[in-house]
Amino acid sequence: MLRRITCSSSLASPSHFLRFFRQFPRSYSTPTTIAVSGRNIRRLPTPTTLRCICSHSSSEIISEHPPFIRVYKDGRIERLSGTETVPASLSPQNDVVSKDVVYSPEHNLSVRLFLPHKSTKLAAGNKLPLLIYFHGGAWIIESPFSPIYHNFLTEVTKSANCLAVSVQYRRAPEDPVPAAYEDAWSAIQWIFSHSDGSGPEDWINKYADFNRVFLAGDSAGGNISHHMAMRAGKEKLKPRIKGTVIVHPAIWGKDPVDEHDVQDKEIRSGVAQVWEKIVSPNSVDGADDPWFNVVGSGSDFSEMGCEKVLVAVAGKDVFWRQGLAYAAKLKNSGWQGTVEVMEEEDEDHCFHLLSPNSENAPKFMKRFVEFITG
């Protein structure tokens, strides 16, 4: 069954996400190789808009890709946005407490846990829905510790009365795809190691209801959420995931999915190059890599490992039509679950995060919460 909620209408216009990519250099020299974090990876090819410091010092800039990264000659990567962080707090903030816990010592990766403060007084045996969240940021920027995600998950935790686990994963270009997906699955396995109440983290042991587990993510995190739900189905993860929320998913391909999808070749190339030059430079298929081209890659959705899916799209988002095509493909795949589409035609990519006080942001939050609590 496919339900669709539509709020107002307008013609699509360039999204916040697309404005990022319009700054992305269009022309490149032949790629070479540099060492990053002790590993050999393909260097981001030098753009024609290259900013260089005319010296042989380690501060020489090799390439710059606003608003994401700047690459230096000595292999250093400087992120140009999404670097601000806020600490977790065991003192209630908006009636929610939070803490960071390492789940992957090998890669020094943590999760940030969010718990309603009142839940610390729950009677024994009373459990909360468990939300596992994957942040966005084009696989390149942001983290669970970013203010934008800390604040969002705090509000979700309070409103849904759930335990939320926000997952840190390795990011490109230091760790190209599929590192992010490997980490996301590792985090899920670590979380599910608590399903019998004997895991290493007390909050999850005590408060998580593993019969009500939800995956969610926005943008790159929406893409990751899809792939994790698919892997959960294929590997018969138990207990089964209850639902998945896929918000403005970063899904693309070399060709438009329909006549309403982005047709402009420069725009399509700009989005593709972020994937091909930064996120997954070793991908043989480029923007048609099955990790990125979820709709057109020929993958089978029938083994989706959850009971229901909510797909959120925004009419001014560059990924708008891809998101709708994704929902339609899932509905027609033979999967036995329920698909619902929430469409905000006048809104842009991740508007609920970028403009949380906007008119439609509370509507989004309400539906997100209802999906978890309903």
Description of the molecule:
It is a single chain. With 374 residues, this protein is an alpha/beta fold. The protein has 9 helices and 14 strands. It has helices at residues 16-22, 147-160, 179-192, 202-207, 220-234, 265-279, 320-331, 351-354, 361-373; strands spanning 2-7, 33-36, 39-42, 61-65, 69-72, 77-79, 96-104, 109-116, 128-134, 163-167, 208-218, 241-247, 306-314, 338-344. α3 (179-192) crosses α5. It is globular.
Question: What topology emerges from the helices and strands here?
Answer:
Elements: E1 2-7, H1 16-22, E2 33-36, E3 39-42, E4 61-65, E5 69-72, E6 77-79, E7 96-104, E8 109-116, E9 128-134, H2 147-160, E10 163-167, H3 179-192, H4 202-207, E11 208-218, H5 220-234, E12 241-247, H6 265-279, E13 306-314, H7 320-331, E14 338-344, H8 351-354, H9 361-373
Parallel strand pairs: 1-14, 9-10, 9-11, 11-12, 12-13, 13-14
Antiparallel strand pairs: 2-3, 4-5, 5-6, 7-8, 8-10
Helix pairs in contact: 3-5
